[in-house]
Amino acid sequence: MGKLVRDNIPDIIRRNGEEPIVTVLDEADYRKALLTKLFEEATELNEASPAGVTAEIADVYEVLRALAAVHGHDWTAVEEVAAAKREERGAFRNRLYLA
């Protein structure tokens, strides 16, 4: 079973002397693959060492940016909505947990 990879991965594989089998997904499959990738990256973030957390957050961020784009949203608009929600509802800084 395959997986969604970053755009330069096939070239990196070729430079290592291998020939990747690459398929370009249609929009529906791409959206599904992005969601699968988001869960994969979130799992890797959950399992990351303290030294690896920043890299894993960057991977989650990149998938979120792609999801925004595939749904027709500019990342700036996402940030604006996030800021408005943060203003109205707050952030997650206080570590509040409802039981």
Description:
It is built from four helices and no strands. The protein is globular. It has 99 residues and is mainly alpha-helical. The chain has a domain at 25-89. The protein has helices at 9-15, 27-47, 53-70, 75-89. The protein starts with 8 loop residues before the first helix and ends in a 10-residue tail after the last helix. The mean pLDDT is 97.
Name the shape in a single word: globular
The Cα radius of gyration reads 17 Å
Number of helices: 4
Name the helix and strand elements from N-terminus to C-terminus, one letter apiece. Answer: HHHH
Low-confidence segments: none
Distance between the termini: 39 Å
Q: How much helicity do the residues have?
A: 55-70%
Overall SS class: mainly alpha
- DSSP strand content: under 5%
List keywords for this structure.
99 residues; mainly alpha; 4 helices; 0% strand; globular
Secondary structure blueprint with pairings:
Layout: H1 9-15, H2 27-47, H3 53-70, H4 75-89
What is this entry, summarized?
The chain has four helices and no strands. The chain has helices spanning 9-15, 27-47, 53-70, 75-89.
